[in-house]
Amino acid sequence: MADDGLSFLNGSGTSADKIRTLDWENTELGHPASWPNSLKTIVSLMLASKFPKAIVWGDSLTTIYNDGFAPILGHKPEAMGRSFRDIWSEVWPDIGPLVEKAYAGESTYIENFPLAINRHGYEEDCHFTFCYSPIYDENGRVCGMMDTVMETTETVLVQRQVSAVNAELRHRMGNLVAMVSALASQTFRGEGAMSERLDIFQDRLKSLGEAQAMLTAEDHPEATIKELVDSIIGSRMTAIGRIDVEGPVVALKGRKALSLSLALNELFTNSIKYGALSSETGRINIEWALRDAQFSFRWSEHGGPPVKPPTRQGFGTKLIERFVAAHFEGNAKIDYRPEGVEYEILSNSRNLDF
């Protein structure tokens, strides 16, 4: 078989076939058989590589690429033989100066470079790690460049997700440590036998753990008020059937969910000991609403023994008033009415972060 000057294209592949069949006469390069040996050699090496590569040649920036480079092009118009500037016109202000550096004899290596490209009929934010290297001819003159590139869009997105998860974990751990520290400090500072205070602390810690479990389940950083209430009721079987719960779906995040869970635990515990649930006839109404940009939550007891206000303000009262108010960025107040304890939270609905 006679040598047609295309023996450097003996490798198989779609890109090699395109080089053979493309009409190169309308390009600066002319027919491949007449290409300089330096170009033929580097094209042969590029086609044999599995790594995405493209050669940019001459003043017209004529592009020749291998099969590995094709996915990066997506559905752009056929790039073989076209100007690199035209192919990447939407990002030329970003990569043009780097091409000029390569033609000046200076290589560039960049990792995870962000580019907004259009290769599927719409603009998409992508990232690439690439190297632009000058190509020299037999006389030591720069006659083009090699673009060796790997798309890293998915890698960057995963890294961002991992960073976001780590930041959320740090935030949650900070919330949890602060809560536990406050619980321990205030509980053990109070009066009463150490064993009694330890029981109170363990009960509060259990409630905190249940709320935290909801916030971390299936990477879901929020819990609805109904879920928090059901969790507390479920751990106190004697209360089932005597509690009316009503309200829309309202999801709480972070400290709001944790503080409400602790407040519910305090209210239930006190109700079982001294309030409506300490008798067989007592009942509790729990309701919350969103009206006119205002969030309200109300706990109301009735049918139990007459209520006597506490003689001193313990940590439980501070928790359900001050802690909750601060975390909900609103007001929280408990009222020891003779007919039954009433507790209310009021806040702007915008403070709920949904």
What does this 3D model show about the protein?
By secondary structure, the chain is an alpha+beta fold. The protein folds into 2 domains: 7-151, 2-Layer Sandwich (Beta-Lactamase), CATH 3.30.450; 162-352, Heat Shock Protein 90 (2-Layer Sandwich), CATH 3.30.565.10. The chain contains 10 helices and 12 strands. It has helices at 14-21, 37-48, 70-73, 84-87, 92-103, 153-189, 194-216, 225-234, 254-273, 315-328, and strands at 53-57, 62-65, 108-118, 123-136, 142-151, 222-224, 243-246, 251-253, 283-291, 294-302, 331-337, 340-348. Strands 2-1-5-4-3 form a 5-stranded antiparallel sheet, sandwiched between helices. A 5-stranded mixed sheet has the order 7-9-10-12-11. The longest helix has 37 residues, at 153-189. The protein starts with 13 loop residues before the first helix and ends in a 6-residue tail after the last strand. Mean pLDDT is 83; it is low at 215-220.
> Roughly what fraction of the amino acids lie in strands?
15-25%
User: Alpha-carbon distance between the termini?
Assistant: 74 Å
| Strand and helix order | HHEEHHHEEEHHEHEEHEEHEE
CATH class of the largest domain: Alpha Beta
Low-confidence stretches: 215-220
Largest sheet: 5 strands, antiparallel
Q: What's the number of helices?
A: 10
Keywords:
354 residues, five-stranded mixed beta sheet, alpha+beta, five-stranded antiparallel beta sheet, Beta-Lactamase, Heat Shock Protein 90
